[in-house]
Write a structure and sequence with these properties.
Elements: E1 5-6, E2 20-21, H1 23-26, H2 49-58, E3 66-71, E4 77-81, H3 82-98, E5 106-110, H4 115-126, E6 130-133, H5 140-150, E7 154-157, H6 159-165, E8 177-180, E9 196-197, H7 198-204, E10 219-225, E11 233-238, H8 241-251, E12 260-263, H9 270-282, E13 286-290, H10 296-306, E14 310-313, H11 315-324, E15 339-342, H12 349-358, E16 363-367, E17 377-378, E18 392-393, E19 399-402, E20 415-420, E21 429-430, H13 434-438, E22 441-442, E23 445-454, E24 460-465, E25 470-472, E26 475-477, H14 479-487, E27 492-502, E28 506-515, H15 523-536, E29 545-548, H16 562-570
Parallel strand pairs: 3-13, 5-6, 5-7, 7-8, 8-9, 12-13, 12-14, 14-15, 15-16, 28-29
Antiparallel strand pairs: 1-2, 3-4, 10-11, 11-21, 16-17, 17-18, 19-20, 20-23, 22-23, 23-24, 25-26, 27-28
Length: 583
């Protein structure tokens, strides 16, 4: 397919720069089933994401190009070429083969953002196993749920994170081995029985490895996503997703050969793999990884130091930068930046205006989900930004707003955001939960669970979630998971969880708790319960607020009415309460 380079048009009041793919010229010409642009395929046939991201570049002109600039939280700097990553991921693939890891096995990663995470991820894909990255802030319960549900055969972790979850290892019969990445630091004692030291295993492994012959439909990555009931579900993607990562990297992120790219997402979330690994490296782009957490001054320093030109981050982070003040960015040379994007939750118009005023560039919001695997709707570099809009569908994607009858509605009418199946990065399964998977599709449409509108010009506008899932700082939190953890505290008789609006995080998790007899509400008990849940889950998932109430509103069938809890908390109309049980 021939992609023409155009001179970028005006974006409303914003100044713009040239050399971007023309959305208007390609949007109606893409056929996902026949496109061959951009991917090489394995030498002996088939497709493998790791090969497309690393090996083919290491065999060509990008062999000695820096693929990864890494900086630790304490200032250590390392860099890796595409050839370095091929060499190291080949060695790790051989480590996995020696351990008996086979095609289709589930291998999970529980590490901070260190180079070994990316090396391990690539090695897992090379042996045909399914990679399961875990959020580094998770506590023991989320890790156990995911390893148990997936039947993970191997876990790769750092000493700090492994120590956090060592109590659950004995409860995972499918887990055969644990690899510990020490980064050269000698362990005082064995953390879990039979652990394997990554550095020793890599030292003895050969660097000659030919990727197993995976097909485009073989499973590659598993990310868990939350719902309103039950534990998180493992959304599984196929190697074919690499095609959509590559092309949306060009269309939405405008990745070009000379770019230095920075995606701030943790690989424990889908953004951190689709656009923190696959999209930049399938495009042969140099990227920056910073291990540390958020700091306004440090983030601006990273952009200046590495001459970051394309930056992909989250609305919560942008609002935190706004809160930190306009003076801080003035201390840094940010002239290398030419394109900024965000994802995870709706980006408020004020943030776009702020970025144009303070950073000299607007921020291009886009929309997608764990289940979609890649960007499906975006504000393109070559299109007008409409403040607050999700943007327009990517080429080859048929998005629509459906009414209660399942048919598309008129412009500016709210309904269910739905995507016509299929597309390359669409999830192929919820792990061992086919019934739940099938429930997401109706009459050839994937029903996203988001409510939205579309205007006369084809711009989509997010309205809200159709269910009780909480979007806190771009992380989707299932209320059931939090309620279950709360119920394990001996004082808690019942618990209901909602998302409460927050100016920085979009929503925070708020819990309503009724107590067992013999317990009295107090600030100390509230803090004890919050700390208890943080240790079990993580600070990102645990409640930020807890209110004690005598009893929770429930339907006559015993279901907690979270909608009613939220309405009462926010002073909104309670709506139909005819199914509410009698007091």
């Amino acid at each position: 397919m021939d992609y023409k380079i155009i001179s970028k048009p005006s974006i409303g009041e914003f100044s713009v720069k040239p050399n971007l793919y023309n959305y208007k010229e390609i949007k109606n010409t893409l056929d996902w089933e026949n496109i061959q642009d951009g991917l090489d395929g394995l030498p002996n046939g088939g497709l493998n994401l790791a090969y497309e991201a690393i090996d083919r570049h290491a065999a060509g002109k990008n062999k000695n190009k820096v693929a990864l600039h890494w900086e630790s939280s304490d200032g250590i700097e390392e860099k890796y070429t595409f050839n370095d990553l091929k060499f190291l991921s080949d060695k790790f693939a051989n480590v996995l083969s020696e351990l008996g890891i086979l095609k289709g096995d589930r291998v999970f990663i529980f590490m901070e953002r260190i180079p070994e995470l990316y090396i391990a991820f690539l090695g897992i894909l090379k042996v045909g196993a399914i990679a399961g990255p875990l959020f580094s802030a998770f506590g023991p319960d989320p890790v156990k749920d995911r390893l148990e549900d997936s039947g993970a055969k191997l876990l790769i972790a750092t000493p700090t994170l492994l120590s956090r979850i060592k109590s659950i290892i004995k409860d995972l019969p499918a887990l055969q081995n644990v690899i510990v990445v020490t980064r050269g630091k000698e362990l005082v004692e064995e953390i879990v029985a039979g652990q394997i030291i990554y550095e020793k295993a890599m030292l003895s492994a050969t660097d000659l490895y030919a990727s197993i012959n995976t097909s485009e439909e073989d499973y590659s990555i598993m990310h868990y996503t939350s719902g309103t009931t039950g534990k998180p579900k493992g959304a599984v993607h196929a190697h074919k997703a690499a095609l959509q990562h590559l092309l949306t990297g060009r269309w939405a992120l405008d990745l070009q050969d000379s770019d230095i790219y920075w995606c701030t997402a943790d690989p424990g979330w889908v953004t951190g793999t689709s656009y923190g690994i696959s999209a930049p490296w399938t495009n042969g782009i140099t990227q920056v990884i910073y291990e540390g957490g958020f700091s306004a001054s440090k983030w601006y320093e990273i952009i200046e130091k590495y001459s970051v030109s394309v930056w992909y981050t989250a609305p919560t982070a942008i609002r935190m930068l706004m809160k930190a003040g306009d003076n801080i960015p003035q201390r840094y040379n940010l002239s290398s930046l030419r394109h900024i994007c965000s994802v995870g939750e709706p980006l408020n118009p004020e943030a776009i205006v702020w970025a144009e005023r303070v950073l000299g560039l607007p921020i291009h919001d886009n929309w997608w989900q764990t289940e979609t695997g890649a960007i499906l709707i975006a504000n393109y570099p070559s299109e007008e930004i409409r403040l607050g809009s999700m943007g327009k569908p990517i080429p080859g994607i048929n998005a629509s707003i459906l009414g209660e009858n399942g048919n598309p509605v008129d412009a500016n009418v709210e309904g269910d955001l739905a995507i016509k199946t299929t597309w390359p990065s669409m999830f192929r399964s919820y792990w061992q939960n086919e019934k739940m998977y099938n429930s997401k599709f109706k009459n050839g449409w994937y029903i996203t669970g988001d409510r939205a509108k579309v205007d006369e010009d084809g711009y989509f506008w997010f309205v809200g979630r159709a269910d009780d899932v909480i979007n806190t700082a771009g992380h989707l939190v299932g209320p059931f998971e939090v309620e279950s953890a709360l119920m394990e505290h001996p004082a808690v008789a019942e618990a209901g969880v909602i998302g409460k609006p927050d100016p920085i995080s979009m929503e925070i998790v708020k819990a309503f708790v009724s107590l067992h007899e013999g317990y009295e509400e107090s600030d100390s008990l509230r803090n004890e319960i919050m700390g208890f849940v943080r240790r079990k889950l993580s600070a990102a998932i645990a409640p930020r607020e807890i209110s004690f109430i005598d009893s929770l509103p429930k339907t006559r069938s015993g279901k907690i009415m979270r909608r009613l809890l939220k309405a009462r908390e926010l002073g909104l109309p309670e709506g139909d309460t005819s199914t509410l049980e009698d007091d």
